[in-house]
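tokens incoming
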């Protein structure tokens, strides 16, 4: 942050230059307001956070233990409370980001009401949520600094210069709550021009990192659902270029692009790729098509499509949906080609959507990618769509079986059962879950770990617990014991909800504007004084 006294001196010079009509303007109050509003525009934020991400990527390249993390947040308040908690418990925000999940935008932020993750929601709601998240993070800055300013005033009034110097040091060394957001643009919401226009809005709202996937935009499915349809590489690369142009037009030259491939679980394509010569990118894409090689025109029925692939005539299998099918078992090879191609054409990071959290499976693909692009790095979805408990218990079960260890006490298909919770197998599985991010970053090239929709689930769980008790036998005790008492004892800032909503900042401004005539809300009758 800028030096407090420098800001004060600069404001004093401007006020003095404008003569006595500005005499009621307090330069120190101006300095405080400037410090509380460090970022004037979303572009300021995008430029600031892009630099952070680039530095973090370089740090990870040097040491895989320096991986980054985020949680998906569907509202500005959730993102704000997350970053306040991180600063409180961990001391700083280093390598901790926010994730904006297209799934949660669809499910929670659409005017149509809850929608599936199929790009049916208003695309402007994505940029709107980015702006909202940063509005709340900036307000968290203003609130925390406001508290420091009050401490400074109290120290001065008490004549405690040592305390005043200590608080000034905290003000000058203040760490912002503003961190990078990795923002989901789905499949681009249309053609490359539509992708460019939305990317611009997202960047102007503050996004330094945009994640885009290789599905057909009007057939888009959640990465953990069936029926996914991918596009030929050139179509996807055009959208990657569109995002890069948007970044560069707006002066965010180090903006970050995450290229996501859904090919591991996508068995369909809508298009046969354009190819000009054997072995080119289009030909490689078409080589994965399932179909039958034919010898003559007699093998072609009415409406059949035929392409030349691998030096032969191939009649791809066309489904009643008018989609074409890929060969079974080609998913990993398609993922590797997708990833290499994206990195060679402007993407910075990869996202491989998998069907389970398995370090070995991810590492197998990443190692193949790194044969061509040695510094390839992943953003990985630690998805709530995985049954983490069952997956890891089965992984331990299989490892024990392979090692010849006796597993007769366990039913592999029933390992989710509570009866196994205290077992040796389950404890080892939990240890593997705990170490998953560290292990995967070391062994499988994962730079960034995120959970797409954790706060969707935490909101549901906490509301269920409160409703069960409050509307049941516990009544008000359900809230007091389950919420407020815990807030107080854990030091949750929003227990003083008036303060969190900006009441004290409003009082400060009233005093700046009206002096002793200010009618402030924080007097002795404010019930927040109970906390």
């Amino acid at each position: 942050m800028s030096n407090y006294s420098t800001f004060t001196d600069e404001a004093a010079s401007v006020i003095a230059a404008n003569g006595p009509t500005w005499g009621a303007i307090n330069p120190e109050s101006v300095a405080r307001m400037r410090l509380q509003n460090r970022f004037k525009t979303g572009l300021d934020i995008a430029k600031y956070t892009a630099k952070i991400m680039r530095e973090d990527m370089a740090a990870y390249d040097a040491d895989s233990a320096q991986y980054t993390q985020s949680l998906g947040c569907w509202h500005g308040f959730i993102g704000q409370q997350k970053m306040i908690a991180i600063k409180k418990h961990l001391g700083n925000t280093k390598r901790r980001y926010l994730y904006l999940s297209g799934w949660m935008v669809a499910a929670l932020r659409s005017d149509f009401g809850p929608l599936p993750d199929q790009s049916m929601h208003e695309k402007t709601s994505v940029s709107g949520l980015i702006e909202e998240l940063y509005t709340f993070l900036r307000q968290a800055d203003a609130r925390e600094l406001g508290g420091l300013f009050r401490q400074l005033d109290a120290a001065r009034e008490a004549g405690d210069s040592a305390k005043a110097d200590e608080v000034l040091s905290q003000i000058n060394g203040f760490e912002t709550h503003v961190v990078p957001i990795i923002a989901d643009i789905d499949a681009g919401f249309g053609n490359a021009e539509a992708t460019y226009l939305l990317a611009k809005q997202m960047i102007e709202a503050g996004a330094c990192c945009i994640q885009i996937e290789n599905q057909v935009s009007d057939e888009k499915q959640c990465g953990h659902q069936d029926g996914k349809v991918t596009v030929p590489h050139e179509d996807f690369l055009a959208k990657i270029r569109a995002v890069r142009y948007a970044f560069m037009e707006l002066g965010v030259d180090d903006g970050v692009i995450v290229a996501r491939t859904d090919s591991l679980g996508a068995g369909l394509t809508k298009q046969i790729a354009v190819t000009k010569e054997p072995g080119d990118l289009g030909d490689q894409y078409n080589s994965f098509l399932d179909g039958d090689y034919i010898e003559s025109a007699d093998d072609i029925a009415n409406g059949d499509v035929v392409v030349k692939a691998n030096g032969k005539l191939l009649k791809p299998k066309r489904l009643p949906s008018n989609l074409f099918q890929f060969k079974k078992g080609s998913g990993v090879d398609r993922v590797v080609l997708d990833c290499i191609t994206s990195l060679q054409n402007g993407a910075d990071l990869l996202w491989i959507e998998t069907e389970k959290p398995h370090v070995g499976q991810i590492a197998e693909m990443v190692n193949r990618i790194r044969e061509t692009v040695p510094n390839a790095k992943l953003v990985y979805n630690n998805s709530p769509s995985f049954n983490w408990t069952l997956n890891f218990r089965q992984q331990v079960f299989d490892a024990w079986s392979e090692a010849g260890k006796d597993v007769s006490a366990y039913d592999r298909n029933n390992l989710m059962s509570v009866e196994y919770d205290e077992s040796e197998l389950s404890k080892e599985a939990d240890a593997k879950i705990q170490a998953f991010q560290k292990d995967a970053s070391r062994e499988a090239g994962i730079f960034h770990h995120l959970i797409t929709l954790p706060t969707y689930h935490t909101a549901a769980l906490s509301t269920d617990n409160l409703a069960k008790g409050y509307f049941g036998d516990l009544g008000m005790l359900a809230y007091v014991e389950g919420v407020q008492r815990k807030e107080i004892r854990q030091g949750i800032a929003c227990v003083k909800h008036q303060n969190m909503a900006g009441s004290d900042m409003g009082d400060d401004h009233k005093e700046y504007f009206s002096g002793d005539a200010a009618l402030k809300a924080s007097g002795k009758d404010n019930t927040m004084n109970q906390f």
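note: The chain has a mean pLDDT of 92.
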